[in-house]
What does this fold into?
Amino acid sequence: MTTRSLLARAGQAVIVLVSVAVATFALGRILPGELATAVLGDTATPEQIAEFNRKTGADQPAVEQFRTWFTGVLHGDFGTSALTGQKVSDALADRAVPSLLLVVFAEVLALAVAVPLAVWAAYRRGKAPDKAANAGSFVLLATPQFAIAVLLIYIFAVQLGALPATGYTPPEQDPAQTFRTLLLPAVTLALGLAAVYYRVLRAGVLETLQQDYILAARAQGLTPRQVLFRHTLRPSLLPLVTLVGLNFGFLVGGAVIVEQLFAIPGLGTYALGAVQTKDFTVLQGTVLLIAAVYVLVNLAVDLLYGVLDPRIRHAR
Amino acid sequence: MNPLGTTNPTTGKPASSADGHGSLLRLRGYSVHLHSPRGIVAAVDGVDVDLARGRTLAVVGESGSGKSVLCRSLLGLLPAAAVAHRGGTAHFDGIDLAVTGEAALRDIRGRRIGMVFQDPMTALNPVLPVWRQIALPLRRHLRLDRRAAKRAAVELLDSVGIPDPARRADQYPVQMSGGMRQRVMIAIALGCDPDLLIADEPTTALDVTVQAQILGLLDRLRAERDMAVILISHDLGVVADHSDDVMVMYAGRQAERGATRGVLAGPRMPYTRALLDAAPTLHGERGRRLAAIGGQPPDLTRLPDGCAFAARCPRVQDRCRTQAPPLAPVPGSAHDGACWNPVPVPGSADLPEGGAPIPQETQETSRA
It folds into this structure.
């Protein structure tokens, strides 16, 4: 990818992030219900509400409020939650770590299972392993996430007692325990992801196997392993890479069910709490952070496209 | 010259094979029947081939005549599920290909038999630099390590006439012209110094000027390496200039077979005659209309009892519709044909082998 198109991409990313900032800010003003009554309760007097609004800046014009907030954001200050008094940037920093660890862990597990399985199944198309993997992926797709989670907790935490059922230990305290606490939630996410990745990659590999250059590779006497992993895999990866990127962005803020079930203090739970309590400062900060992750991951995906496929890199 | 020099410990080529008098590839009654949605198709039906080292056999025919199926079947490249039946015998350097398992065939493919495909745009992997595509068979068959394989790849690119090979080696197919890509394909096919090269319409997808270069390159490499070459083509101009023997196929069967000069100078099977009449010649008379072959190629699932060409043949007789003609020496010529009513020899004189006048003047200078 040329420097120019990279700069263009970065410019687009900035535009996206500013738009998200404006939109989430506007959302907070559009939604019914005031923060003051949410914090102070229904019995608050008009004087108390006016005092609250003056302290939090809610009495200022919306444009002025946005300017103050956004200037802070640019300096790394996402404001302070009026409900808890906690600085949003501190909370986000705390919450982003388990979320990111969980998603990276889940993606790695999912790919480690789905990639070899998809290549093998496509190569043995219509044979027993292919049929078994297809059926397995359907079962996983059809099973709700919470059911998988409960099943895993029952087997590995309750029956075997091998892993903690819930909770999260920060890596700075005990990295081994972090791994143990994240294993079951990561597997829960990974099973669903793996089922989708398997299907997408299998379809891609099947298509690639029809290409002339695969026949040519076979005519060169290459082993099935060389044909599959040297010639077939890379051209088949593009749809999968896109999907992995999209899921990554989604799960950083969207793994709410898993975070709730396993009591992991992640971004999804944080955002959900903020919506329920109308804590807009928190919501704005969380949404902006998640959007930033989305944008960065997709930028990385675009770069990876060029690495995987020289036709994109060398296109005029 | 073999760019790999002494590093190539070939599989010990015997000087002559056990059967077939010095012929490297020997087919007898070779048949391939394929499953198709509309029934079983005799894609290749009773083909005989004798091909010696250093010789080029051209296989000619329309699309669907069985040329490509023949070659892919020999190499075991047809999907196993597609093959309904194989008949006859196929020996390569004394090895019975019919009883050779997939693993052993893999050792022959790419190492002893190289293959060049029709369209270098699609037969090269778009996401691998070309040196890696050349290097993979070298690493597999010759057990070269990564560095040696890359060095060999650059030498191979040099030997097929690619300028600045060290720089080109790191490029991707998308950065190369069609002719250059076909040179890369040839470099891949020749990497392990094969005994036999199968070129499946190697120039059909290329510009005319590039065609001549590629065919010249194949001729040079064949002579240098004492390789046997099967040249699949539907271009009789290419066949005339670049082959020793020719086999004309129609509907999976051999229609006419013999020394290229003799067959093209005095075709006896009406189908060959029609092919020649349909081909434009550089020195042909201006304004001459090219004669199209009337009718359609036959439905291979429902071949007639008689000659497969009977429905389109201008010389058809009653017998042609009921009884398929066997391939036999044609009276009055030095080659074989499968025809009940062959085209008369011009002047009705018996032509000695290779003594016939050549239809195209270019032929005289093209080959030693």
